[in-house]
């Protein structure tokens, strides 16, 4: 299967969401409710189901996890490097820096499923479980004094809870009853398709009125520098082909749409972040095939 054929269904669903948002009158409450359904129920079901029933080889898998997390931490460092490099209006840097390292989990799991079925989904779910707290700590540290504490925020994160619960279930040697497993499987399958549609519905291709250099820098870090770091490191330590693909793909993902929500909570520049999310998603149509092609 060619890379284009592999990615086309996922980006077609994103395009469908974009068109539905603009040519239907379903209204903001519909899309907001759909996003909540995915984030709090369908997506956690997929993460729990994937991690609860897959046997992990932590010797090899640990190397893949390290590569993905080093790439993520490199994004945090490179993102903050923009502060002395660029002069930006107030709250522009503070709002946009998170787009240099946060990732879109819906796209990650959709591509991983297409790459290697349940095995690919489980590997990405494992990375997400470890990367979520790192990205949240880097992205919300400025809100700690307002939000009741970073640990409280992490403890309420449904993605982190689902992944940790699934790993604990797995390590304890427990097994899901068939009827529960089938239900979670169907919820997980729905989360991928509906999640991609929701990504498209959230795209906003306006909002860049200033700080164009800063915007280009953040996009280059997320879509080019991070996957390059993961690719070089993965090749150096000799990751197996599938794990190399998963680690590089994870680092090449566009930014999560929830970055806009965080910017709004910070009192930051929401339109600027919305543009970065949307531009990153659109540009990843070009960059993701290149990185996946390199790892084949």
Describe the secondary-structure layout.
Blueprint: H1 3-23, H2 28-52, H3 58-85, H4 92-96, H5 105-140, H6 144-147, H7 150-155, H8 158-171, H9 178-201, H10 212-237, H11 241-251, H12 258-265, H13 270-294
Helix pairs in contact: 1-9, 1-13, 2-5, 2-8, 2-9, 3-5, 3-10, 3-11, 5-8, 5-9, 5-11, 10-11, 10-13, 12-13
- Helix proportion: over 70%
| Annotation field: number of helices | 13
Radius of gyration of CA atoms, rounded to a whole number:
18 Å
CATH class descriptor: Mainly Alpha
Number of strands: 0
Describe this structure in words.
It is built from 13 helices and no strands. The protein has 296 residues and is an all-alpha fold. Helix 1 packs antiparallel against helix 13 (270-294).
Q: Summary?
A:
This protein has 296 residues and is mainly alpha-helical. It has 13 helices and no strands. The longest helix has 36 residues.
Provide keyphrases for this structure:
0% strand, 79% helix, 13 helices, mainly alpha, 296 residues, Na+/H+ antiporter like fold
């Amino acid at each position: 299967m060619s890379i284009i054929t592999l990615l086309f269904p996922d980006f077609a669903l994103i395009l469908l969401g974009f068109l539905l948002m603009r040519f239907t009158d379903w209204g903001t409450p519909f899309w907001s409710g759909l996003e909540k359904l995915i984030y709090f129920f369908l997506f956690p079901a997929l993460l729990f189901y994937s991690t609860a029933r897959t046997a992990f080889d932590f010797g090899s898998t640990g190397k893949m996890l390290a590569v993905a997390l080093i790439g993520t931490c490199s994004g945090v460092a490179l993102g903050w490097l923009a502060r002395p490099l660029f002069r930006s209006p107030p709250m522009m840097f503070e709002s946009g820096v998170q787009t240099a390292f946060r990732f879109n989990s819906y796209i990650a799991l959709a591509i991983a499923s297409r790459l290697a079925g349940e095995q690919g989904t489980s590997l990405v779910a494992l990375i997400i479980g470890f990367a979520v707290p790192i990205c949240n700590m880097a992205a919300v540290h400025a809100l700690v004094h307002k939000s009741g504490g970073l640990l409280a925020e992490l403890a309420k994160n449904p993605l982190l809870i689902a992944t940790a619960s699934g790993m604990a279930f797995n390590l304890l040697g427990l097994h899901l009853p068939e009827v529960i497993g089938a239900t979670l499987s169907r919820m997980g399958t729905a989360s991928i398709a509906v999640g991609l549609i929701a990504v498209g519905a959230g795209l906003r291709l306006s909002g860049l009125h200033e700080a164009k250099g800063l915007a280009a820098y953040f996009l280059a870090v997320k879509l080019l520098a991070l996957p390059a770091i993961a690719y070089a490191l993965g090749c150096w330590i000799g990751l197996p082909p599938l794990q190399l693909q998963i680690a590089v793909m994870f680092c090449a993902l566009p930014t999560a749409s929830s970055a806009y929500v965080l910017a709004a909570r910070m009192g930051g520049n929401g339109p600027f972040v919305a543009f970065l999310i949307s531009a990153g998603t659109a540009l990843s149509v070009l960059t993701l095939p290149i990185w996946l092609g390199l790892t084949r």
